[in-house]
């Protein structure tokens, strides 16, 4: 949540503002209820902030420009403390104008600090925890004039999660930042340097980056980047190259980022599979620091994730248990560490997160490691906090996902889960090499099968158009169709703001059937006819809802005549799709439907209300 971008160059110019505004536009998926910038030069700090989108801020700046500057900081907000107003927007400036800051995260002891400052006569104009930090930093600068030293002193007083970036009126040639738990990365330029919540902040200007670790302070000038820990000890930064550019951060002719990312799914799945086989035909992961004998000794896997990523974990449960015969539990990350889970050295915790910064998942990872468990993470972001704190990492290589509601990250995560399951089956001897090769060959064919489903986009959109006035939708599925039913309902809630529920189809008679009434759309994800017993039971479910006047929207394999007979609307997926890999094709119609229905309502599908892309606070 919240997007941060900062820049420092060599001379006064309009370039700092240009960089910051461009970065904020690319970071707006992280938060979009208000935005602001502060620019610094020898004459002090100039501040501008507006409620609303980055475009509103840009219009304000065009109407009344700020001065040329050496450095600049910017922020696009997702409100946590205080309503989304211009007053609560970042940056926040100290009353004396000595310092301006932007902040991502939550300062958990802000009330105690506010009371302490108020006792000295400090007055506050906003409802935010961030303004407290601005006061503290200004106060510290009167005692410790160097901005880096002042930031160190303040950071050590804060509790919670934060990425704080500051400029000082007396030191406009530097930007200083502190990080605990919230994401922060440096962009390395030539005669200029950058800071951002993620690389999207500066990818239009440099492809070189440096990760900032936990409890570290970074000082950025035009010529140098220096990192110290919270004790003031120098730290060597870890540099890496960014493997995508600005072309992936624009809609590329699609009406929205979500449309673009739905259509990028075949490529995301293909890219997630790239480079996984060694010359002798064995699967390999990206970063593995777990000994093979430890993996062979694992007697339980726990998947920790939130939201859409958790549904990918539910798909993983079916595949890994089938291929590896290891029991798999799926836990919501925010519940995991609070229920005293049973984990030990024979437990493998698999953390799934698109950003690698999801705070609930990060806390679950830390708790698991404290209990002696090994952690393998499935991520889409290099250099992220979860990546650095895991024992092994499997990257999805899906590229940046700008739309808040996940699509291509989800199918890439499922693909990565399949690869993990096959890797463990290979390592533990559950499957013969030729069996592994067959599964991998089937997985390699999935992008083409996904493309065949995408080719039905027009027909799926027509269904959404015909159902544009619905206020409630149910989703039913069994086996690997169950988590897809959950994901379909979530997409509709996220994008169209209507009631939607996903159920295991077998639960229908145990209560949910009471919701079924005449005209109610019910999506049914039908298992392959190659599983006749399971298939017959779901066909029975279709009959049950249709008999009560509901409108079944059936997603079934080509040639499934039984499913077609009872469908009001039929969406077909390739008949050759293996049972366990069905989620990669059955989820696509649900994504398209939710996207189109939201558009029919005039809603912003890329930036749903109240949501942010990466939830970096608990």
Please sum up the structure shown:
This protein is an alpha/beta fold. It is 36% helix and 25% strand.
In words, what does this structure look like?
- With 618 residues, the chain is α/β, with parallel strands linked by helices.
- The protein is built from 20 helices and 26 strands.
- The protein is globular.
- The mean pLDDT is 92.
Query: What is the CA-based Rg, rounded?
Result: 25 Å
Structural class, please? alpha/beta
The geometry reads as: globular
Number of DSSP strand runs: 26
With strands numbered from the N-terminus, the spatial order across the biggest sheet is: 3-2-4-1-10-9-11-15
Profile the largest sheet. Answer: 8 strands, antiparallel
Residue share in helix: 25-40%
Nearest-integer average pLDDT = 92
Low-confidence stretches are none
Topology, please?
Elements: E1 3-13, H1 15-27, E2 34-41, E3 44-51, H2 54-63, E4 69-77, E5 92-93, E6 99-107, H3 110-119, H4 130-143, H5 147-155, E7 160-168, E8 171-180, E9 185-188, E10 193-196, E11 208-211, E12 216-220, E13 225-229, E14 234-235, E15 238-241, H6 257-263, H7 265-273, E16 287-288, H8 292-296, E17 300-305, H9 307-324, E18 328-332, H10 333-336, E19 347-353, H11 359-370, E20 374-379, H12 385-388, E21 392-395, H13 408-428, H14 433-444, H15 446-454, H16 457-466, E22 472-477, H17 481-496, E23 499-504, E24 521-525, H18 532-547, E25 551-557, H19 561-565, E26 569-573, H20 583-600
Parallel strand pairs: 17-18, 17-19, 19-20, 20-21, 22-23, 22-24, 24-25, 25-26
Antiparallel strand pairs: 1-4, 1-10, 2-3, 2-4, 5-6, 6-7, 7-8, 8-12, 9-10, 9-11, 11-15, 12-13, 13-14, 16-21
Helix pairs in contact: 3-4, 4-5, 7-13, 7-15, 9-13, 9-17, 13-14, 15-20, 16-20, 17-20
């Amino acid at each position: 949540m919240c997007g941060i971008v900062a820049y420092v160059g060599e001379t006064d110019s309009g370039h700092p503002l240009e960089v910051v505004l461009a970065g904020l536009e690319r970071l707006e998926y992280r938060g979009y209820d208000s935005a602001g910038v502060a620019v610094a030069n020898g004459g002090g700090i100039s501040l501008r902030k507006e409620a609303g989108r980055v475009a509103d801020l840009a219009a304000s700046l065009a109407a009344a420009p700020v001065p040329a500057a050496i450095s600049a900081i910017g922020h696009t907000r997702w409100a946590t403390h205080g309503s989304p107003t211009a007053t609560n927007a970042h940056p926040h400036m100290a009353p004396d104008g000595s310092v301006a800051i932007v902040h991502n995260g939550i300062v958990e002891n802000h009330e105690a600090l506010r009371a302490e400052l108020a006792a000295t006569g400090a007055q506050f104009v906003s409802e935010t925890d961030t303004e407290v930090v601005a006061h503290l930093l200004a106060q510290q600068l009167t005692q410790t004039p160097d901005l880096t030293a002042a930031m160190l002193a303040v950071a050590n007083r804060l509790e919670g999660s934060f990425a704080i970036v500051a400029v000082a009126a007396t030191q406009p040639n530097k930007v200083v930042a502190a990080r605990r738990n919230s994401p922060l990365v440096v962009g390395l330029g030539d005669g200029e340097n950058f800071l951002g919540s993620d690389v999207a902040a500066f990818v239009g200007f440099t492809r070189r980056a440096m990760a900032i670790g936990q409890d570290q302070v970074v000082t950025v000038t035009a010529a140098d980047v220096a990192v110290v820990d919270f004790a003031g000890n120098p730290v060597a930064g870890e540099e890496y190259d960014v493997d995508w550019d600005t072309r992936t951060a624009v809609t590329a002719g699609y009406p929205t980022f979500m449309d673009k990312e739905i259509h990028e799914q075949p490529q995301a799945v293909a890219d997630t599979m790239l480079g996984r086989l060694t010359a002798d035909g064995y699967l390999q992961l990206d970063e593995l620091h777990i000994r093979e004998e430890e993996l062979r000794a694992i007697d339980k896997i726990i998947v920790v994730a939130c939201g859409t990523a958790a549904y990918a974990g539910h798909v993983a449960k079916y595949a890994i248990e089938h291929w590896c015969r290891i029991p798999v539990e799926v836990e919501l990350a925010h519940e995991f560490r609070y229920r005293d889970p049973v984990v030990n050295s024979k437990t493998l915790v698999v953390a799934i997160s698109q950003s690698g910064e999801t705070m609930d998942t990060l806390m679950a990872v830390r708790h698991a490691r404290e209990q002696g468990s090994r952690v393998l993470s499935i991520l889409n972001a290099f250099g992220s906090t979860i990546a650095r704190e895991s024992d092994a990492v499997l990257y999805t290589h899906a590229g940046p996902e700008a739309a808040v509601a996940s699509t291509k990250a989800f199918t890439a995560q499922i693909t990565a889960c399949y690869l993990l399951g096959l890797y463990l089956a290979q390592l533990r001897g559950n499957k013969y090499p030729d069996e592994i090769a067959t599964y991998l060959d089937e997985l390699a064919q999935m992008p083409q099968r996904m493309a065949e489903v995408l080719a039905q986009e027009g027909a799926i959109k027509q269904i959404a158009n015909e159902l544009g006035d619905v206020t409630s939708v149910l989703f039913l599925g069994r086996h690997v169709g169950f988590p897809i039913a959950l994901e379909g309902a979530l997409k509709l809630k996220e994008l169209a703001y209507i009631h939607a529920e996903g159920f295991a189809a077998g639960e229908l008679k145990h209560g949910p059937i009471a919701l079924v009434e005449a005209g109610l759309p019910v999506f049914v994800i039908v298992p392959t006819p190659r599983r006749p017993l399971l298939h017959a039971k779901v066909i029975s479910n279709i009959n049950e809802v249709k008999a009560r006047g509901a409108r079944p929207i059936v997603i079934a394999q080509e040639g499934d005549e039984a499913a077609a007979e009872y469908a009001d609307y039929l969406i077909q997926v390739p008949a050759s799709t293996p049972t366990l890999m069905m989620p990669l094709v059955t989820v696509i119609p649900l994504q398209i439907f939710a996207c189109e229905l939201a558009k029919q309502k005039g809603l912003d599908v890329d930036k749903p209300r109240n949501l942010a892309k990466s939830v970096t606070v608990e």
